[in-house]
Design brief:
With 101 residues, the protein is an all-alpha fold. It has one domain. It has 3 helices and no strands. Helix 1 runs parallel beside helix 3. The longest helix is centred in the middle third of the chain and has 33 residues.
């Protein structure tokens, strides 16, 4: 669950950075012409969050499978469902930033 929280934070922080610099650009105060500007930085944060979710979900599934082999009853966790929902949010956010550069 800590990875889900961290990924959600990275996604929201990346989108906030993008929207803040978009606001400055709309006001005419932003500096343009950077090779790695705010939109790319925002997409990088979101991409790192999505990669972390994928790796954490894989690790969680692997460890739950090992626990189920060892013990007779291991309850199912909703962590994978929550990770999928946060991942969907991240994908939508990434696409929104990508197409609004």
């Amino acid at each position: 669950m800590a990875w889900i929280r961290t990924s959600a934070s990275l996604i929201s922080f990346g989108f906030t950075i993008y929207k803040f610099f978009q606001y400055l650009r709309d006001k005419g105060e932003a500096i343009e012409g950077r090779a790695f500007g705010p939109p790319r930085f925002a997409m990088s944060l979101i991409a790192v969050a999505l990669a972390a979710l994928v790796f954490a979900t894989y690790e969680n599934q692997r460890e739950m499978k090992a626990l189920r082999k060892r013990f007779s009853y291991v309850p199912y966790s909703l962590a994978t469902v929550v990770a999928a929902l946060i991942g969907l949010l991240g994908i939508v956010t990434f696409v929104a930033v990508f197409f609004r550069q």
